[in-house]
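hey so i finally got around to running the thing on that chain from the lab meeting. sorry it took forever, my laptop kept dying and i had to restart like 3 times. anyway pasting the input first so we r on the same page abt which one it is
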Amino acid sequence: MWSNGDGLQGSALNSKWRALTARCQNMGTGGAGVFLLCLPWLALLVWLASVSWFLTDDAFISFRYVRNLLEGHGLVFNPGERVEGYSNFLWVLELAAVWRALGVAPEDAAPWLSVVFTAGTVGALAWWIARQPSLRNRGLVGWMALGLVCSSATFAVWTSGGGLETRQFTFLIVLAVVCLSLYRGRRAGLLAASLSLAGAALTRPEGPLIAVCCFGWFAVQRMADAKRMRVDWRELAYLAAPFAILVAAHFLFRYAYYGEWLPNTYYAKHVRPWYESGFRYLWAAALDTGLYLLIPLAWVALRHRWRETRDGIYALVLLLIAVHAAYVMRIGGDHFEYRPLDFYWPLLALPAAEGIACVGSRIAAFDWRRIPRPTTLNSYRLRRPGVRTCALILFVPVIFYCGAIQGALLFEGAKIDERIKYLHIELDGGNAGWLLAAPGMPVLVAVSNELRRQSAARSVALPFAEHREFANRRLRGWQPYEDMERGVIPDDALMAGGTLGIRFYYLPDLKVIDRLGLADATVARNPVATPNHQRFMAHDRSPPPGYLEQRGVNFTAYPAAFSEVEALERARYAVKVGPGLWLPFDSDDHKWVAASFAGQDLRAPIEIIPEGDYIARLVGDREPSIRSDWDVYFSEDTLTYVKEPCAPADTEAWFFLALYPVDVNDLPDDSKQYGFDNLDFRFDRRGVILDGRCTATVALPEYDIASIGTGQYVPVEGGYNHLWEGEFRLGE
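ok and heres what got predicted. didnt touch it at all, straight out
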């Protein structure tokens, strides 16, 4: 027997599916059954999100603005300097409110706030599915739609958001589209859509572009609904007016507070159009995430829905993606992997799933008896497959080809825990043989590999793993400063830095010049002559010649140390900033260091004396412990190296020390096997030139020392040679 068109008497697979979805035909009344069916998808999303959980250094730029706002300095990066070095105004205010009200710092609150917006995004999609009028096979379409979203590794990566505002922007756009889809005939629905679009505009700079597309679509759709070429201006006002008022207020605030109509980040990042990079970025995204399948399927659903109900909501989805993709192509993509495209996946999920159902319906309606069969099969009677069966069969390759490459990239990235820069993950037979076994995948993977390799070389579309590892290294080195005493760093200390996030969030009292211009108006407007093929995404700007000297840069901080010896191994100076916590730093102005840190627990390789003969005061009338090319003076806790006269080449000196303890158990764990401790250092990190003499001092550890071997390496072609070597035993 042939089954009827809706598949009610189809195959055994169709019958089983019918039994599972019997309570889910109307999602408004079968919520429990729908939840049970979709629970595996939600569990999959939670798992993928946990694998890709991360923080990014860039998020801490906004966090510093949050800190300064709550401490009364205003929305500034450096107190007293009004520069808008963030582009997520609403996100900054939310994090400040959470910190003030709940006492949860931004680095802890931001990822979980993104999780809340992820739940809101999935919830808005589920509501859209449940209330979408004239949606056939609602349970199946909803199940497939949630599957497309929850199985997306790219969507999962931005569940924690890296501490950025990405998922909030996605939620607000999805909410606005759902309101326009379901409630565009109600004033409350238009108001909700308008407020959502305003929130998106206050969250990301491209928000107004999205809003304009929504306004234009709404006007055309309402004319189609009314079947007349006239716009109801009152309805349009309900949609556009709240948005216009809030966004205009933000622009006025920006101009009044910062003196600019656009954020400083625009001037820092926008050099010129970069279409070639943007094309690579979008083409790689299309291959990795299956946009080449999702968009055509959404087009099929749009045509079907327009013919049956004159509903063009899927046209809005495709319009938003097309316009936004053109914007992304112009700016060259993004420093992060597919971050600006995050709202594509939830918006495309429902139309793509409905498109699968539409194609399945056409396949089910096809008259299979027209297909010639071998005479030996004429005695067998063919059954027409049902709509749901056909849709499920189509869904399997769609979800595989949409998710396989991005899933492989996610898990390969999750394995990486080493020092990386401009990371490119190459998929091949060694790490993705299962992937290459699928039809067509070798070609898709090869093209994807090449596009991502070219992008990574220009610091575009870098995987979450690189940002995670960079942030983790920075956190290990700089987060201990969270416990430092405030007010230790002088008010006139000024540092120049190229990555503003974690370092300066945990050193809130240190003023900074951003070498890349995000938080510095002068650097942001310094012209860039670098051609596009040599550019690096968001790293094009640099300070004008002489700018850093003019501003008086006089300080360079290093990661936290937990002993004086460790601190002085990293920098020329060290100051104690808390119990067992030291701040290593460099400065070329020794007198400024002496004056600014007077009264504090400061350590340095030379004794800082306001006046007089530095060397004489340092070594007194003692005889050197070792006489050589460099004279070596030993005291209870330091070794001092002196060379007179001092030539420029001497500043390249590299010294080695071998410390033999009285008790080998006093050595660090990694040195016990050798029986001695190494304290190698370079002159340019420890030394100074005073009164024409080179001087360097290194602090000795606190344990009892039996003997010290010391000498100097000199560079030669192919390696280093010993210039001199000496030893002295304590007590002799």
